[in-house]
Amino acid sequence: MNGTFTEATVSMTSPELEPAITLEQVCKKRREHTVGPINWSIPRGYVTALVGENGTGKSTLIHMLLRTLYPDSGRITWLGESCEGELPIHIRQQIAYVAELPMLEENRSTAKQAGAFRSQWYPNWNQGRFEQLLEQLKVPDDVRLAKLSKGQQQKFVFAAALATSPKLLLLDEPSSGLDPFAWKDMLAALHGEMENGDVTILITTHRMEEVKRLADYVALMYEGQICGMKEKDELYQQWKEVWLGPVDDQFVLDDLQELPGILDWERKPDGSVRVHTSQAAALQQIAEENDIPVQVNGLEWEELLSCWVNDYRIHLGEAKA
Ligand SMILES: Nc1ncnc2c1ncn2[C@@H]1O[C@H](COP(=O)(O)OP(=O)(O)OP(=O)(O)O)[C@@H](O)[C@H]1O
User: Which UniProt keywords apply (predicted)?
Assistant: First the structure.
């Protein structure tokens, strides 16, 4: 990966990271709830995965970044420039977008013709890369796009996006519909992109394997808000599962439960306790001092994300109280 930043945690607007995109107080009212206010900087030169449950506002956010949707309030800055109305063409030409479901205006064209058309709009169009990706992804270039399968159309969009040599690549669940082989090729192409160019990638995904393999940073969205952004490896270490006991002494247990960092505390019928905590080392030490059997385990990605949401909700509750 390019860039030299090594610090484990970054805040949502870390001053150490150069931002590719900055959002300040960005809000958009949707049918059921409001997305925002969002204050967040997307670090330049890295892959950031935006994760969160269905309907929380990830696609809305991406559309605001593309200016296909205007925020009701707030300000967005792209590569150091902000604007009120439409995105200036020189910025738009540096942004490529792959949506979850390809909606192709060029349905009557072949991949070759559609590429030739797009190449006129993008000054940094890389024809060699486009052809190489079509070949690698096995997309026929002489068949009308309308006659291709959804997966093949998605691969075309992906190849065309990378061929623009973008500075900002916005990927909204790009792998839905891709077979496992194409998915592997897509990951390899994205890794190649990061190694060779000064590109910033924002990807929304529900596939934790994608986060694992691609992301440098992970941002969590919950109920329209960005809860935070963490360096991926630091996220792995943030919360642990701790098994205590079995323990008979309720007083000791009550004391342990008061320790900071505890998110979930589940007493089992056999007297053991399963805990999710951000302070596993402290809990382990005190348990051992009290001769309580203790075991510390890492968590799966899905569990880590639900710990993150729980932690955010606890802090939100505390902030409101
Ligand atoms: N065109 C629209 N008009 C009004 N509201 C919309 C529109 N599209 C989405 N919404 C609403 O905006 C909210 C956020 O939707 P959005 O598609 O951004 O979520 P998401 O996080 O991308 O979800 P998913 O993970 O399912 O793709 C939802 O409440 C949704 O119902």
Answer: ATP-binding, Nucleotide-binding
